[in-house]
Amino acid sequence: MGRSRRGFEGGAGREVSVKMEFAMKTMMILAVVSTLALAGCDKAADAPANQSAPTVAAPAGSSWTETTSVTADGGMLMGNPAAPVKLLEYGALSCPHCAKFSLDSAEGLKALIAKGTVSYELRTFLIHPQDVPASLLARCNGAGPFFAIAEQMYATQNDWLSKSSTITAADQQAWATMTPNQVAASMADKLGLVEFVQQRGIPAEKAKACLADAEGIKTLEKIAKVATDDYKISGTPTFIINGRIVPNVTTWADLSPELVKAGA
């Protein structure tokens, strides 16, 4: 299987993760991305097919698609927390295949979430340096606005990633002397991401505070550590249904039948 490299330039193929060390005191992922490596997926046997679960009514006056929360592992959850089918995605906001999944799944996945039989958790994984400021800002206003902002970041991905061309060697040299949060703030400015989220309900001062929050970086580190240590994930998108990795699936067309098989 081929390898893909995408630091401050575009790239093709399934997005793959850098081999990160999660002490991340220097947060080198914010500088030049090093060697990328694609690892194999879990090849466990498929679970037996289940009958579709009956619709679960949301609390009066609400919808499951409007029910959101932050999970213990730092992910953003949409839907019935007690749904029998729990879908977890590790996705990078800079990943074009994740962007395509976001577009293609928008209607079908939300229909299953609205039914109350599927919950959807998105954990933003760090593939490229640009993922750090993008993730910090998408998460800035909490779980409620997160999904809409992430969806719009995916929809306009080419626009804000194209601004990476304004990043110079001098910028990268300066970042080597900065803290991770300072680098994230500088990169967000280069990519126009503060203005992006400001247009979507996050005041500029709050956005800058989120970029400066060291706890935000720690949360991203935690997400990445669980992904690599517990699930051995190296590429995005990676999907997990009820605790089991779905191997070799990166599209909504391929994932949808797996959700149905699981009982959605």
Summarize the structure.
By secondary structure, this protein is α+β, with helices and mostly antiparallel strands. It contains 10 helices and 8 strands.
Instruction: Round the mean pLDDT to the nearest integer and report it.
Output: 85
Instruction: Spell out the helices and strands N to C.
Output: EEEEHEHHHHHHHHEEEH
Structural class: alpha+beta
CATH architecture: 3-Layer(aba) Sandwich
Describe the structure.
- With 264 residues, the protein is an alpha+beta fold.
- It has a single domain (15-262), classed as Glutaredoxin, CATH 3.40.30.10.
- The chain contains ten helices and eight strands.
- Strand 4, helix 1 and strand 5 (118-124) form a beta-alpha-beta unit.
- Helix 1 crosses helix 3 (143-155) and helix 2 (131-138) crosses helix 6.
List the SSEs and their pairings.
Elements: E1 15-16, E2 68-70, E3 76-78, E4 85-91, H1 96-115, E5 118-124, H2 131-138, H3 143-155, H4 157-162, H5 169-175, H6 180-191, H7 193-198, H8 204-212, H9 214-230, E6 235-236, E7 238-241, E8 244-245, H10 252-262
Parallel strand pairs: 4-5
Antiparallel strand pairs: 1-6, 2-3, 3-5, 4-7, 7-8
Notable characteristics:
264 residues; Glutaredoxin; 10 helices; 8 strands; 11% strand; disordered N terminus
